[in-house]
Design a protein that fits this description.
This protein is an all-alpha fold and 78 residues long. It has 4 helices and no strands.
Length: 78
């Protein structure tokens, strides 16, 4: 368990909730989408500091990844 795990645990429910609501899917499908995404890999990498973006923006970035296959992080995250 890395030091940002508690932060990730606080962020992911919001992302999952938005996924379920906006895509009309259940928790199982939403979890599968999130946990298999590049966004989640980046979120777990403490060096990226992606967790600072907060779950509404992270959700938008996940939707971008799911739709286009790419993630366009805000410039300050690079």
């Amino acid at each position: 368990m890395n030091s940002i795990s508690p932060v990730i645990a606080m962020i992911t429910p919001g992302i999952l909730e938005l996924l379920m609501k906006n895509r009309n899917i259940d928790l199982m499908e939403a979890s599968s989408l999130l946990y298999s995404s590049q966004l989640y890999i980046d979120l777990e990498d403490e060096k990226t500091k992606v967790w600072r973006l907060g779950y509404p923006l992270l959700y938008d970035l996940l939707e971008e990844e799911l739709t286009t296959g790419k993630i366009t992080y805000p410039e300050e995250q690079i």
